[in-house]
């Protein structure tokens, strides 16, 4: 079974004349997670996304499946426990995507520091117990100041006390989305990108029973009939609610913007992901992460009220991040000219949800005295589990200062599932790590509605043990399995590096990838396989879809993009039958995406 633009055309024809059990609006990670579980359960499932799959928030994250160790500062133990559990679940169902990559957390003696050496060790020990890695090769450890500088000699020496090292996971966010989407399509779903919802429609009783949509490729408008509709559009959640004339629920989203910048590794060389306080006593922390032959850093966290479809990196974002990174890595002396690529994304935070829930949150600020009391109690518990009552007592007695005017960095990453009076469901908030769990909760509600209102009964799958597309490898032997898969590519004549690149990108789908062996003029053998597969099996519709979200070339292999652009465009023109006018339009759109990532306009404005 293929998943191409022909598949898309067939999906549309089917949806014009039938009623689906579930219509999902939004093709980011939340919608994709709902789709894969619904389709696997046998529900007739449709998903519409007005952009490319993952084009919004879900391809613009920090690209980690983060364990949330920082929540232990406020002893939000339940949050961290659920987060690391879910991280393990995601790694189990998509083992070719999240990869273990221990995080270095330098500790500085300065105002506003999140941890000191004592508290970080306590937090890491507790974190390891929650993550189930105590006593394994991924168990945490401390480094002295000298050991930290031997590992990262560019790091700021002043006030450095040492560092903690603990388990975290790198992620390919866009690939995680497309693998879920592909699995949902393979299980009988109807997955559509570049289809925009115009209006929620209703039956004679005023209940939501479908959506009027527009195919943005052809301009055709049609209606998809559905028994249940769920809104999974992240920062757009309130906008979609406004398309429902009978929706009475109030606005709930407070999107914030996060920016990341990419430089060549020769400019900023770190051997592993590094996570540190900004040094500005502003309550924020910043990641510096090696990837491919590049290093990227971020993120900002500022309230956003602009165009939800097109958040941009602004000069103030660049100045803020460069200031922090140059402070922590004084020898780097990075300027805007060193930035090779960038991205800006929105976080779908829920306003007014400052309380702790399973997705993370913040109940307020612990006093230093209360914090130290809990640290001491936890330390005693780690040495002697019979002292658990002391931990519970210390946590119950902490002095919490509730502040309802929290800054954007402190707004809960919590999720919510609401149903309006006309039946429209909205699943909002959360974060990538929790996408499977959020979907599981939503499916239980959808199952209940379908049974109660439509007498349609479905048995939900065990989503913890249901791999996504490409994930059918042993999650406990990932490196070994991917190496074996890479040998298939080597047998086709690829060198070891290119073979491993494809194995990591496609996982257990690599054998199918290698069936698309047509050589594309101007592309390497590796990239010919990749583009052919994307066109036939990954619903790629534009050059930007391919170079930004299916492969991450624009972000992390920027050096090769200029030579690839025309061969990719030429292949797509032949494949889709584009006119010269349409081809020029696609070329201009790709150039605009690249220029924005390159920060071309900002560099020109600053005279660089």
UniProtKB/TrEMBL annotation:
Its EC number is 1.1.3.21. One of its GO terms (biological process) is glycerol-3-phosphate catabolic process. InterPro entries: DAO_C, DAO_C_sf, FAD-dep_OxRdtase, FAD/NAD-bd_sf, G3P_DH_FAD-dep. Its cofactor is FAD. It is an enzyme of class 1 (oxidoreductase). Gene3D superfamilies: Alpha-glycerophosphate oxidase, cap domain, D-Amino Acid Oxidase, subunit A, domain 2, FAD/NAD(P)-binding domain. Residues 21-351 form the FAD dependent oxidoreductase domain. SUPFAM superfamilies: FAD-linked reductases, C-terminal domain, FAD/NAD(P)-binding domain. It comes from the Bacteria. Residues 466-582 form the Alpha-glycerophosphate oxidase C-terminal domain. It holds the Pfam family DAO_C. GO terms for molecular function: glycerol-3-phosphate dehydrogenase (quinone) activity; glycerol-3-phosphate oxidase activity. Belongs to the FAD-dependent glycerol-3-phosphate dehydrogenase family. PANTHER family: ANAEROBIC GLYCEROL-3-PHOSPHATE DEHYDROGENASE SUBUNIT A, GLYCEROL-3-PHOSPHATE DEHYDROGENASE. This is Alpha-glycerophosphate oxidase. The lineage of its organism: Bacteria, Bacillati, Bacillota, Bacilli, Lactobacillales.
């Amino acid at each position: 079974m293929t998943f191409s633009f022909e598949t898309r055309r067939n999906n549309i024809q089917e949806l014009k004349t039938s009623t689906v059990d579930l219509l999902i609006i939004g093709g980011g990670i939340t919608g994709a997670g709902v789709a894969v579980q619904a389709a696997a359960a046998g529900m007739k499932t449709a998903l519409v996304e007005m952009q490319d799959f993952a084009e919004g928030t879900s391809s613009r994250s920090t690209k980690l499946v983060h364990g949330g160790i920082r929540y232990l500062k406020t002893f939000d133990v339940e949050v961290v426990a659920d987060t690391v559990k879910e991280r393990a679940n995601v790694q189990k169902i998509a083992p070719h995507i999240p990869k273990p990559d221990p995080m270095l957390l330098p500790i500085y003696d300065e105002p506003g520091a999140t941890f000191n050496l004592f508290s970080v060790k306590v937090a890491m020990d507790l974190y390891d117990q929650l993550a189930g890695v105590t006593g394994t090769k991924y168990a945490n450890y401390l480094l002295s100041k000298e050991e930290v500088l031997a590992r990262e000699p560019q790091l700021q020496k002043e006030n450095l006390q040492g560092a903690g090292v603990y388990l975290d996971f790198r992620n390919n966010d866009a690939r995680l989305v497309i693998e879920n989407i592909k699995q949902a399509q393979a299980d009988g779903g109807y997955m559509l990108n570049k289809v925009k919802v115009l209006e929620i429609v209703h039956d004679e009783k005023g209940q939501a029973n479908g959506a009027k949509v527009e195919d943005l490729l052809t301009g055709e408008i049609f209606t998809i009939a559905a028994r249940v509709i769920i809104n999974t559009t992240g920062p757009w959640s309130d906008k979609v609610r406004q398309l429902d004339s009978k929706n009475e629920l109030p606005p709930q989203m407070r999107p914030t913007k996060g920016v990341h910048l990419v430089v060549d590794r020769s400019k900023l060389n770190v051997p592993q992901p590094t996570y540190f306080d900004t040094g500005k006593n502003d309550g924020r922390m910043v990641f510096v992460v090696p990837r491919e032959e590049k290093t990227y850093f971020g993120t900002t966290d500022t309230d956003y009220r602009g165009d939800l479809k097109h958040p941009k990196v602004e000069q103030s974002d660049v100045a803020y991040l460069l200031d922090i990174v140059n402070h922590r890595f004084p020898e780097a002396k990075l300027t805007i000219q060193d930035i090779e690529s960038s991205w800006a994304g929105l976080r779908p935070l829920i306003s007014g949800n400052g309380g702790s829930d399973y997705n993370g949150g913040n109940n307020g600020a612990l006093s230093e005295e209360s914090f130290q009391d809990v640290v001491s109690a936890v330390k005693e518990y780690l040495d002697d589990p019979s002292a658990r009552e002391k931990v519970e007592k210390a946590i119950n007695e902490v002095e919490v200062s509730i502040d309802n005017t929290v800054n954007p960095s402190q707004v809960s990453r919590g999720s919510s599932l609401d149903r309006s009076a006309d039946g429209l469901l909205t699943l909002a908030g959360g974060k990538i790590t929790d996408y499977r769990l959020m979907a599981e909760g939503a499916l239980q509600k959808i199952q209940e509605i379908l049974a109660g209102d439509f007498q349609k009964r479905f048995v939900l799958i065990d989503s913890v043990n249901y791999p996504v597309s490409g994930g059918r490898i042993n999650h406990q032997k990932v490196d070994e399995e991917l190496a074996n898969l890479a040998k298939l590519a080597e047998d086709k004549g690829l060198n070891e590096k290119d073979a491993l690149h494809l194995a990591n990108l496609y996982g257990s789908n690599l054998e199918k990838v290698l069936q698309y062996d047509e050589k594309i003029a101007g592309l390497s053998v590796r990239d010919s396989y990749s583009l052919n597969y994307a066109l036939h099996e990954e619903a790629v519709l534009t050059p930007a879809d391919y170079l930004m979200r299916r492969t991450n070339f624009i972000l992390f292999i920027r050096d090769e993009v200029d030579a690839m652009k025309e061969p990719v465009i030429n292949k797509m023109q032949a494949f889709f039958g584009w006119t010269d006018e349409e081809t020029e339009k696609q070329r201009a759109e790709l150039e605009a995406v690249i220029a924005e990532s390159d920060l071309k306009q900002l560099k020109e404005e600053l005279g660089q």
